[in-house]
Write a structure and sequence with these properties.
The structure is a single chain. The chain has helices at residues 30-42, 74-93, 104-124, 141-148, 165-168, 174-181, 192-206, 233-241, 243-255, 275-287, 310-330, 347-356, 371-379, 410-422, 425-441, 444-456; strands at residues 5-13, 16-19, 23-26, 45-49, 60-62, 65-69, 125-134, 153-157, 186-189, 209-211, 214-217, 220-226, 261-268, 296-303, 338-341, 359-362, 386-390, 403-405. The protein has 458 residues and is of the alpha/beta class. It folds into two domains: 5-229 and 445-456, Glycogen Phosphorylase B (Rossmann fold, 3-Layer(aba) Sandwich), CATH 3.40.50.2000; 233-441, Glycogen Phosphorylase B (Rossmann fold), CATH 3.40.50. A ten-stranded mixed β-sheet has the order 5-6-4-1-7-8-9-12-11-10, with helices on both faces. Strands 15-14-13-16-17-18 form a six-stranded parallel β-sheet, with helices on both faces. Strand 5 and strand 6 (65-69) form a beta hairpin. The radius of gyration is 22 Å and the shape is globular. Bound molecules: adenosine-5'-diphosphate-glucose. Belongs to the glycosyltransferase 20 family. One of its GO terms (molecular function) is trehalose-phosphatase activity. Its EC number is 2.4.1.15.
Amino acid sequence: MRSTSSFLVVANRLPVDRVGDREWRRSPGGLVTAIAPVMQRRDGAWLGWTGAAGEELKPFDHDGMHLIPVPLSAREVELYYEGFSNATLWPLYHDVVAPPVYSRVFWDAYRAVNERFARAAADVADPGAVVWIQDYHLQLVPMILRRLRPDLKIGFFLHIPFPPIELFCQLPWRSEIVEGLLGADLVGFQRPGGASNFLRLCRRLLGLHTHRNEIYVDGRTVRVDAFPISVDFAEFDQLARDPRVQDRAKEIRAELGDPEHVLLGVDRLDYTKGIGQRLKAFGELLDEGVITPDEAVFVQVATPTREGVPAYARLRNEIELRVGRINGEHGMLGRQPISYLHQSYDREELAALYCAADVLVVTPLRDGMNLVAKEYVSCRFDLRGALVLSEFAGAADELRQAFLVNPYDIEGMKRAMLAAMRATPHELARRMRSLRRRVATHNVDKWANDFLSALEER
Ligand code: ADQ
């Protein structure tokens, strides 16, 4: 087995999930789909955690990818992953929609784990190798790695929003994080707004000189840019055309009682996704009699996530209480206006749900991109279906023909949901054609290629 590689991806998680005791399965999701071919072409390696605390495994090959496990103890999962990553950075970067926890113990663990990832990468990178570091869990890795291995080409991509300076500066370790990121040759964000927030922060907080999208630091230049991530359009388009998926979509509608309108939400059960707000809007439309439970049903799929972080357990209770109230008020025996599923589905079932839904409601209070919106568009080859989309999702920069909403404005959301339900087939087709054109030409391959070509030019 090779001991070094010329292309490395460094991410919190490895791109595989365990099935049973010994087997692995490639994780679903765009990032893996986009990067796997690049890894195979370049003989690359992926460093990350297996997802099991305290597990120490040797590197192994899976599905044409060389995987290098980085171990985390149970205490590190609690302090670095659930703590600093998901109770400090996640809420801070999402407009403090929940109060971030600032804990020195979390920070110490974050630093130690970032150091471990950087050392592991330094040990296996060929001279001059390209290293692509992913996401908010590993923002210190670029600088630690540069100090260990100045010969490498280092790229960093942030999958979540980068907040304005006024919010970011709450962080007691703000300078360390910015300096950590500046170890990269290229720092990528989802939206141009994130890139300009970062440039401004470098000027104001560290007094660095910037010109356009470049920052001058220690005699080097760091390029900063937006690379909006996307989905594998062709894969979803094909999946949706599969007769089995189409049959399943009809079956889903029949199981829901063949209502006139099926509205759908698909999210991780996260407080940034605005699930409560959209259910409130739907509930008020029922309360006011503007729609009836015979006419419209709402299917909300909420995948369990980060269950070790207290704010997530609270959110689950709030959402389940709201669903219970609305169903209690407006349901009938055997028929409920909201079908709430706290479960995860495979891609075929997800595609069938997208095909069954007349309206997809995506209302995050803040979201880096939101791939669910792009998956829905990719599945609607029939040019039917409406997308209600929050202005605060990165996807709103590109998907201008969606019914755009401010998720804090309940009346506005009610109007947009009604407009989406009542739009003519002609209007829906016009909007969907334009949405599909965008996602088809800006798919996930383009995202990975754009980022890597920009990095290689450095
Ligand atoms: P997430 O916050 O996880 O991603 P999103 O972009 O919507 O949000 O991706 C979720 C993925 O999980 C989608 O591919 C979706 O199909 C899948 N999924 C959701 N619910 C599911 C269910 N019940 N069953 C099966 N699959 C389900 C973070 C950022 C986003 C950014 C992405 C990628 O928060 O803003 O778009 O990374 O950069």
